[in-house]
Each structure stands twice: as structure tokens, then as C-alpha cells.
Write a structure and sequence with these properties.
Elements: H1 3-12, E1 17-19, E2 24-29, E3 32-36, H2 46-56, E4 60-65, E5 73-80, H3 91-103, E6 105-109, H4 111-117, H5 119-128, H6 137-147, E7 153-160, E8 163-173, E9 176-184, H7 193-206, E10 213-218, H8 229-233, E11 237-247, H9 257-268, H10 276-289, H11 306-312, H12 345-352, H13 359-379, E12 395-398, H14 401-405, E13 413-414, E14 417-418, E15 430-436, E16 439-442, E17 447-450, E18 454-457, E19 461-465, E20 469-476, E21 479-480, E22 484-486
Parallel strand pairs: 3-4, 9-10
Antiparallel strand pairs: 1-2, 2-3, 4-11, 5-10, 5-11, 6-7, 7-8, 8-9, 12-15, 12-22, 13-14, 15-18, 16-17, 18-21, 19-20
Helix pairs in contact: 3-7, 4-6, 9-10
Amino acid sequence: MNPETFAEWLRRQGHLVVHTDSSYWYSAGPRVLQAFPYHWQIRPSNEEIRTLMKEHGILALRYSTPIDHPNGKVSYHVALRRPYTLDGLNSKARNGVKRGLKRFNVERVSFERLAMEGWLLQEDTLCRQNRLGCMTQAEWEQLCRSADGLPGFEAWAAKADSNLAAALIICRINDVFNVPYALSHRDYLRTHVNNALFYTVSCEMLGREGIREIFFTVQSLDAPPSVDDFKFRMGLLPVAVRQRVDFHPWLAPFATPMLHNLTANLLKHSDGNRLLPKAEGMLRFHVQGKRSLAEQEWPKCVDPLKEELLEKYEENVNMNYLDECQLPNLPKFSEGVVPINSQSFVGRLKQILAVPWNYYFKRWLKKTYHLVSEVRSEEKGAQPANEIVFNTGDWVRVRTPDEIRATLDPFKELKGCAFLEGMYQYCGTKQRVLQVMERFLDERDYKVKKVKGIVLLEGAICHGTPGFGRCDRCCHLFWRQEWLENATIA
């Protein structure tokens, strides 16, 4: 079985399914897509995400990405690999398996039987997890019947006498068995029904030829953390990943900690709402995913790996990275600038407008402006300027302030590159090109971006901004090649 068979199962249930370069996606909620197969860790490009959202009217995406990715909430997959034996379990789990196998018979069952009798188990499972509103009986029956006849899909159950006590839906995708659904009834939990079912099916699956691992689940958005405790007691292992929730650029500016807190408070007083728990989970993952690994709340199961992973994937994170804070008629930085009083209303407002949560709104505003400007330029028959090319080691002269101001838009930018107030002190000076930029990590949204026409100059360093005062980080300033002209050594 390949991912396309799994996609057919989802289509039969009425889901939208889309295939892109990095993965498959299905409609996990209204205008929300989730990537599958679930065990894949993907790195979709920004262009792929934008196209996916634009062509299908999608508001949000959810997917797993490697732990070394610069963005995403620390999360985990639950998986199992060989060897898996009874002797390898702790004494409590081992005794539970032995007792469960004496009480229950574990065998394959038909999807039709699971559709008819399995709802009592699924309903009780959702009730215990406080997620009863996320599925109806009709949806469960359609889910089971959609898998009937598809290669790679199997239903297994533990039976007490003639009654189903617990069940699993499994499917093979290439060399990995997935377990999309596990269900049981509380009446049989004390007699270790799940121990018997998980152990028997796991041994059966791992014993088949060509199987690398069994993938059980990805950390849930809305289920309590305890939902996976039983799996870990049964010898399954957590795999540290990052889960990303990407919102549409028009929604991203509003996906803030404040909105998440509001949603979480509403959830406390909600009863039976199907969408609110998922919305709270997506906002929580999105908000925490903007933080560095060290600042995030780590799930308990992967917390022991925190120190090792932080050392291996050390990040250079500055959450207070400024987009721009430019004030007219300020003295040069070499003469010293007294920072704005952060306690004053104007100073505080400028700081609020500079922090990363507002980055997406600014980007949308700038994009809208440039789209309008491009349309007007086309109507006037404007021709694009010839591209200027400098190389590393070239000597250049920074153009005059008036020449540079003539290139800037109302945001004091040229093609998205800001000209900061501290850069005026270099106007008219001769500088040497240190590096021609092609890629850089943008710490406003923690994405590696490709650029053209931008260079770094030797010794042209940013020492701070008027709004925030001195900064000792000593970053090189970004220069558009249009602000420079060729120069010769005197």
C-alpha cells in the first residue's frame, strides 16, 4: 500500500485530498488541512504553502517537521520498532499482557462488524478523553466502511466472549504500519484488554516482511497529555519533532497569545462544541511554535531529551528583532542617540509596533501597497530598471541621501529592504563589498529566505535604533545595490 491508497480512504469519507511536492494533505476541519502520512516529517517551501492556501481557500495547515526546523512547537510522534518482546516490558506491563491474554481473544474482524459494534467503544473512548463532540456515530460508520476492500487496511479486536472489548484500525503505508484509531470500553480496562490487544497486534505487524516500524500517533491538539501514557508503558517510544500550524497571512497577525488565552477561557465554559477545542489547540501550537526550543513548554515524554537536543540544534534566536523604527531628523549614531523613554506613551507604542506579532500584518500591508503600485506602473507603461551587479571585494560609494530617499517607498524600503536611520551616516563614503547576499535567516518569522541585489559592506555595522537605543550585537547592515555606485581606489 502507498500513500495514494490512504488518500482514497479519506476521499471516501468525504475529505478534500491534495497532493503537493512535500506531502499529501486532507481536510481535517473547515478550511484546515493536515499533512499525511502522519509519520512523515516534511519541510514544505513558503511558495508551496502559499499556493496551497490560495488555490484551495485554506485558512490553516498542520504538519510535522524535524526538530531542527527553526519554527514549530516541540512535539512528538509515538512509534515502535524491533525488538519487541514480552521480556522487554516492565513487570507491570508484562503482567498486564499475560492477564489480558487469558481473558480476551485477539483476532481480525471485518470493517462491517467494526462499523456496527465499534461505535460503543469509540464513543466511550472519546468520552474518557473529553472529546465526545469530535465525531458522530454516522461518521464512525462511514469511516469503517470506507476502509473495506482497500489493500493494506485491517481491523483487529479483542473479544470477551462474543463482544468487542477493544479494537484497532491499522493500515500499511510502504514499510510503516499506521494506527489511525485505537478504541476500547471502560468496562474492560481493569482486566487489561488494551495490554493484550496492543502487544498481540504489535508483534504480528513487526513480524511481517519489509516492516520498519509501527507509527501509532502524533501528539493531539485537544486530547489530554495522559492519552499517550498507556502507550509508553507498553514500551512505545516518543520521537521528538516539531508540529507546525501555519495560518493564512491574513489571519496570522491575529493569532496572538491574547487570542489564545481568550479561546482557552471560552473552552472552559463550552459544552460539546466540536471546533473550539481544535481552534484552541491550533492557536496554542502556533503561538508556542514562534518561540525558541529553550523557551517552549516541552511535553513530559520528551523533556528528558531537552538538554541533548538543545545542544545539538542550538538556535540563534532574538525575539525582540526589530522590523523598523525610523524617526526623521535624528543625529547620527556615531554622535550618540538617547533612546526614547520606554515608559512614555509614544515610546511604548513604538515598541509594541515593532515586535514580531505585528510582522505579518505589516507584511500584508506592504504587499497590498506594492501590488497597487505595480498596477499603476503598468498602466503608465513603466519599464523595469536595469539590474546592478557588484561582487565581493568591489569598491563602492554610497549614494547621497537625496538619491536614496528617491528610491524608498512610504515604508522607507526598496523591494522589501529597509533603509534605517543609522545608514545615512555612510552616505557619500567609499566602502568595500564584504559579501553578496543569497540566503539569510529572518528572525521575525524564523524562515530562511533567498534574496537578490543585497550586499554587506565591510565595517557598516548596526549599533542600535533610535526607538530602542544601543545594541551590542553588531549586525551587518543590508544594502540594496541601487543605493551604491562603482568607485575606484583613490
